[in-house]
Task: structure prediction
Amino acid sequence: MNALTLQWHDAGQDYTQQISEKQSSKNPGTVRIGRDPQQCDIVLSDRTVSGLHVEIFFHADQQKFYIRNLRQPNPPLIDGQQLFQGEVPLKQGSVIYLGQMELKVTAVAINSFPETIIAPTKPPTPRIHHPHPPTPRILHPHPPTPPVSSPGVYGLECPKCHKISPVEKLQEGCPWCGTSLAAAVSVLVTQGH
Result:
């Protein structure tokens, strides 16, 4: 909530009033200060204060509270500067004189930043446990050239059961499990195996 706190001393008493951004008031959107209880939300008793003297409002685009003069013949003094017309921003520590009355801005709370949105955390990916992890195999893009001294033949290793079939069985599929040998790896089968 955006809010500004004013303090002042009037008729022997100390007063504190918080003005919020969307506070209900006699003039919606502003809080009016002066002597006239019919027009003002904060009523002061000092005779040097005009009936309807100033108004304080929150400027959403600027994210600041401003004070506006409503009585040109009796301009307020804001931080040592007379405000004849228009408005000026207020900050913590600002001093406002309406005639002989002194009001101080003791706090300004501006929530100008959007709330932080925290994305929900992703649940951890469950790990699938394989009782017998597959044995990694190194595949060569081309079968190694057999040494001249050890003659051998080429076969096709079934991608499913890993048994070696003769190359001639490429069209028929694996004789053991029936899997197509189109994706089989060519392997060198040495004599005696």
Notes: Residues 112-119, 146-150 have pLDDT under 50 and may be disordered. The two ends are 84 Å apart (CA to CA). The chain is about 0% helix and 35% strand.
